[in-house]
Amino acid sequence: MTAIRYPVAQNAEAALSAPMARAARASEAEALVGAAVEFVSEAAGPAFETREAALSAYAGRLDDERPEHRTTIDPEDRYCALIEMAAGPIKPKPVIKPTYQGGRRWPKPAAPRATIWRLSIRYWRVAVDRPVLEAEAAGAPGAGRKTASLDAKALRDRLGQPLRPVKPQQPLDIGLFEVRPPEAPHILMPDE
To answer: In terms of CB atoms within 10 Å, which of 125, 138, 167, 169 comes out highest?
Structure first.
């Protein structure tokens, strides 16, 4: 199976028109551009009223099942998708009390909203504010720490960061001297 090679770019429009490179994994993308990257999915391009209009506008970038335009994209180029979204902002009015009017308990629901079609592109966005450090690449839990290859400033920055737990601490649900018997786990018994 071939991995999807996502574009590497500063924003969605650049990823669609002229990406810096293409990479399947974050480490590969960081090595290609020399900066930290993050994986994002954003809408790009104009909005279309119908799915057919969007498919026609982005011919060659999306799979098209229409009989007259049948197209299949290579597996490594499947980083674009069409999404259907609401045409305007969604702000439902809060209903505090039932109305009991016209034989209905609640008011009639609003008319269905108009929808538009947009192209969604998944890509590696280059984080320009911070370069990738070797300590970050090697600092994953379970990986060996490589601090010998860092200079003094990078090492000081790394040591100045707060320690982060692997997972959040779970709240205590029983006291220090209480135990749940295995035959009745819903009961707390004092342990002496």
So the answer is: 125
pTM for the complete prediction?
0.57
Q: Domains of the chain: which residue ranges?
A: 6-87+116-126, 132-161
Helix, strand, coil % (nearest 5) of the chain?
A: 20, 25, 55
Reading the block at residue 97, the tokens are 């009390």
Rounded Cα gap, residues 26 and 39, in angstroms: 8
The one-digit pLDDT tens for each residue of the chain (192 residues) are 578 999 999 999 999 999 999 999 999 999 999 989 999 999 998 999 999 999 999 988 898 888 888 888 898 999 999 999 888 776 767 767 777 888 878 777 767 778 899 999 999 999 866 544 444 544 544 444 555 677 888 888 888 888 777 777 766 667 778 888 889 888 888 887
Contacts of 119 (CB under 8 A, 6+ apart): 16, 43, 44, 45, 54, 58, 61, 62, 80, 81, 82, 83
Measured CA to CA in angstroms, residue 45 lies from 4, 19, 58, 84, 107 at distances of 21, 15, 10, 14, 38
